[in-house]
Automatic annotation (TrEMBL):
Residues 15-26 have a biased composition (Pro residues). The lineage of its organism: Bacteria, Thermotogati, Deinococcota, Deinococci, Deinococcales. It comes from Deinococcus hohokamensis. Residues 450-597 form the Peptidase C51 domain. Gene3D superfamilies: 1.10.530.10, endopeptidase domain like (from Nostoc punctiforme). This is CHAP domain-containing protein. Pfam families: CHAP.
Amino acid sequence: MIAPPQVTGPKPKPKPNPQIVPPRATPPTKANKQQWQRTFLGKAKGVNFQLRIIRDPSGQLLGRYFATPGSGKSWHLEGVLREDNSFTLKGTDNKAIFEGKFGPDGRRMTTSFTNKTTQGEFHVDKMTMMFAFVPVKPHPPAGTQPTSADHLPSDSDTQAPATLQAVQALAQALGKPFNQTLVAQHMPLILRSCSSAGIIDPNQIAYVFATAVWETNGFRSFNEKYMPGWTAKEYFEQSYGPSPSRLLPKDSRRIAAGETQQSILAARRKRNIEELGNTEPGDGYKFRGRGYVHLTGRAVYQKAQYKIIIPSGIKRNGKVPDIVEMPDLASSDSEIAALILGHGMAKGTFTGRKLDDHINSKEQDFMGARAIIGVDSAGRIAQGAAAFVVATQAGDPQDQQASTITEITSEREREILRIPVGGYTAAEQQNMSKGLEIGSLNGIPAYYNGKREATTWGSSFSKDGSLYYGFKWQCVEFVRRYTSLNSGRYISHRGDASTFYKASLPDGAGTFDGLKQHRNFDLKTGLKVGSHTKPQPGDVIVIGTATYGHVAIIAEVNDTDIVVAQQNVGTNFKEQISLESKDDRWILGGRVLCWLSK
């Protein structure tokens, strides 16, 4: 075989091959300095993953993951978060790789997972992982050296303050007291119960806390209260016993509505025996409401004992506690109370309805979720849960949480605008009263009000009728309904849109409902000088008009303009307003009077 001749001199450049597609450039790392730490949970191929991530100011990621079943060890990861929110995390002490992308709200991510070991390769093509709370872990004693699993800061460093803040927000929304010491005492027990019950969806955790705060009056009362003028035994026997013979103070409304004493007592007797299982004299008092959910009735105590307490393996003095024989344990033992709360809501122990029936990956029905416990105060508890969610939302991993604005098609817009021609028919009026959607912000729709600003289609209320939103479908109604459903913050201020602006208040001063007013015009000179505070998504914007004024919700903000979502401006649901920065102030264009922030 003859060897090829040696070639000397510079090598010729290869000709480009049009069939070869050059690889795409990797999106750059963002240059902002935002830092955060979050925990995500997911499951694939029978394996539960817990992934904890820290982002540093340069965009680099540090992480640690646990997999169960597995060795019981945690494994260190390092990687990068890119401009398009994609990421790669690689193991430094094993060959694990997570590669995926954060969702736009920062609460979910999709990722693949691969790990090569001496036993072979474990691979997951696609797994959804969700931002979640994890049980708070105590700090190690002073002087103790951290273990290999503690290379990252403890979850208690970040989760506890976030959850405390969230509980405070929901307590405010519910009108319940907030005591940080009490919350710090009960919060870890509830988080542990949620974790052991498989409750990792942040919305479900929010509803669990909202239920507990509502039922216990902010962790102050773990036993159901009775009315003044009654002894505890006689009140609870008449409320829940098998032989009620006296009306209760709360029955006055039913009597006023035309019900008879006989029918009220007969219905109560039937419920107490058949639903609560209170068949023996004294059962009403013995099995009165206790705990984080105010567990009520012999039958429900028995369900909790056999479906929750016994399977949990919890022991007291070497024995499984029996809440049927010793029902006071449901309130006096906080760990037992927390087990009943979390596992009961997850399993549907109380009414047959469970969290997954109302709060899951497809829906967030905080109103309907009250059926898990009962039916009363559904609207208020839903408000609290929503406030908790907003307070704990991490936002986008790199930036503020993006708003989701949905607009109707041009064809649908033309169809809506044709409706008033020739006057409304009865059917058209009914449709208008129900609401003709012109767009939505974060899933909350705005409706068409017709061509006349002053038109109304009746009063608008929350689903349970407990909250008044305003006149259908005026601008104030959308602002009040949006803030209530999106953040759990109810605007109780009454008056048309012009009254939302208080001309005498200086920039940054507190106004109604705990809001702050940021002026666009100087208080003394009347010149447009702006505010020191930049408008943010979710703020209420107030605009001057020649009639009743106008209010809207700020949906998007950048350094040159804002986008607002609004109602009662024909079909013009989405509108852009200029924004400029000058002399350390933010100035909005047009006739903007102010914006209101929490």
